[in-house]
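Researcher: Please translate sequence to structure tokens.
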Amino acid sequence: MPATRTEIAIIGGGVIGNSIAYHLARQGQHVLVIERSDIASEPAASWASAGGVRRQGRHPAEARLASEAIQRWHSLSEELEADLHYRQGGQLWLAESDSEAEEVAAYVQRQQNMGFSDVRLVNRAEALQLVPGLNAQVVAGSYSPSDGQASPPHTTRAFARAAQRLGAIYQTNTAALSLITHAGRVTGVRTEQGDIEAQHIVLAAGAWSDELALTAGLRLPIRTVALQMLLSTPGQPGVLQPVIGAVSRELSLKQLDDGSFFIGGGWPGDVSPDRRSYTMRPASIEGNWSTACALLPAVAQQRIARSWCGLEAQSIDGIPFIGFAPGLDGLTLALGFSGHGFALAPAVGRAIANLINGQPTIELEGLNPARIAHLT
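Model: Translation complete:
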């Protein structure tokens, strides 16, 4: 069977891979996306993610991308011609003691030092104006009004459809088996449907990226984690506008338009031995639910309707690898987002497209995969 040829092949049809495909196609490149399942299907991160669109709380290396992405989200629905279920309700990170309030005050200063000038310290009264019904322990918070939330499956599929309108080709339900190399260069991808030759390969396969990288001799310092999400029965809509969390709680709590509460925060499930599925942990379900009810008692008026996990690639140093692969010409990495890549997707797609086309990308300097040599 003769090999399929394209300019750029992207392995992975998650929100990152589809954003990259969209931005490359918008620049006139011929793009082919290889996805092992359907777009945004279980248990991929882009199907399971909590959907927070946040700028505050970022590592300094992500700050430029985060600022760009937040601005893009305001008009992204119009750009992609799709309902992303986006809402700019802000994000509120809460302190429940005086010592935690001091920690939050220092945190606000760090956010402002990164250029997030609208992030501000709020007292209890201001926090209650933003979220009536917070528990009696809340004394202060960090409020980022530009942050918000959106639907990861809707956004992932919208990027894919927009890329296809611009000419990108998709091979879904097609597993990539290995990278094809020649003389220190990645020249293609071997798939279960045949070989694909490309001038450039982008590896954005999330939790399964390390398997493919290893076929080209590149060991990635990432591990697969199963991160839990809970969805409550619908309550009264409008109880909670911002996404909320707290210093002492592993929690990301938001309310959807139908009134249901969407609860994350990094509580773990267990990854299956083949890294294709997961099992839930009853202790994580109970712990995550209890901490949400304790911070916002209105949650306790509902019950858990659904629980699930998504499989994420967590990098050893907690920030993604974005850029040219070390020691392998023709390969770009966009992986290891460690549970917080969704919000960055619009900016990451634009940055990778510019990088491949030889344009300056100073916003990627702190995320350069060259640091892999020091982490493995």
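Researcher: Any highlights?
Model: The longest helix spans residues 98-113.
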